[in-house]
Write a structure and sequence with these properties.
The N terminus is likely disordered. Helix content is about 60%, strand content about 0%.
Length: about 80
């Protein structure tokens, strides 16, 4: 686990967020980069719901995940 993850409590809502994504958008190989970005934004907005569903209480979105996402889209800061 990276130093940016506060605890194991961050993992449960992240998994819940992945479940939400799977329910909203079936896997597709034909998705534009702008659509991926839009979906990422929607999931970020759904973070409080993922926290609620996983029972950990509302938490700040893990900065390590945001860093990885930015690296994935070519931003370094």
């Amino acid at each position: 686990m990276t130093g940016n993850m506060r605890s194991d409590e961050d993992i449960a809502p992240l998994i819940e967020l992945l479940k939400i994504a799977a329910d909203l958008w079936p896997p597709s190989a034909d998705i534009s980069p702008s659509e991926v970005f839009r979906q990422d934004q929607i999931l970020l907005e759904m973070w409080p719901e993922a926290c609620r569903r996983s029972g950990v209480g509302i938490r700040q979105f893990p900065p390590g995940v945001i860093k990885l996402w930015k690296e994935g889209i070519g931003q370094t800061h």
